[in-house]
Amino acid sequence: MSAQALVNLPNELLTSKTSLDDLLSQVDAFVIKHLASSSDSNQSNTNAAEYAAKYHLATPGHKVRARLCLAACLDLQIKYNDMLIISAVSELLHNASLIHDDIQDMDETRRGVETVWKKFGSSVAICAGDLLLSSAYGVLAEISDPKLLPSLIKLISKRTSSVIKGQCDDIEYKNKPINSIENYKNIAKAKSGTLLGLPIELALTVSGESEYLHLAQKATGAFAVGYQVVDDLNDVTKDAPQNGRSKSLNIVFVLADAHSMNPIADAMLLAEQSLSEAVELAKQLPHSLGTLLISLAQQLQGQIKHDIGC
Predict the structure, then answer these.
(1) Using CA atoms, how far apart are residues 181 and 153, in angstroms rounded to an integer?
(2) For the whole prediction, is pTM greater than 0.90?
(3) Range of the domain at 193
(4) How many domains does the structure of the chain reveal?
(5) Using CA atoms, how far apart are residues 118 and 102, in angstroms rounded to an integer?
């Protein structure tokens, strides 16, 4: 069953008219309910971290990770509640990383509104990110098969550590620029690919098909490089040195430092190659697990071709 198809699973909470968007709304409600229930029941007021976390979640992005997780769960016939749980884990971890990333990069807006640190201060933003991070582990307590917990916790911890390393390498770039394309790709895979692959990996783990974890990681890692390059091409001006700030890690600057004669064109070529690799790897995933990833990669390829045409 594809990600865009209507679902019809043997569960009383799903009907033949339940769509992916319906499930996304249910994941959102599940996350908010968990954040509220995780607070001390004796508290009469919402604490600052919870309030700031909900502020951040109120302006959603494209929810790519939740979509990837839900699509994988539908293909693998995973139970409804488990599907909500691991989709929530994927979104909680991603949004925790965004809040902390905005603090470190001093970005003042995200999704058209003020970032959490800009609106509430860095101290509250750190706590809000920590709350989302801890909540990702908290929701796992409701998984239907407790025997899965060691594998799930180990996987989440390993992938979170990878994101942290990627972010540290990104920060280090401002002090010690790199001109290695391979180093850039490794950072992109760690920062973005890790949490893009995790939703599919969680679904594979819950369904007992762990033998495909490495393939899922490779496919999403290649997609992440392509995605990051396209993002960098859109952010060249934003990432350039300004107001006393060092330049941010951006493939255009990396290629220029590597003496590329045309860093923009070379960046587009790298994006196209990475996305094509992601498509080929995604095709090898079992069932229809790679369908949504392939669609996302092809959308980015279309954007690159449009930009070249312009």
Answers:
(1) 32
(2) no
(3) 148-310
(4) 2
(5) 9
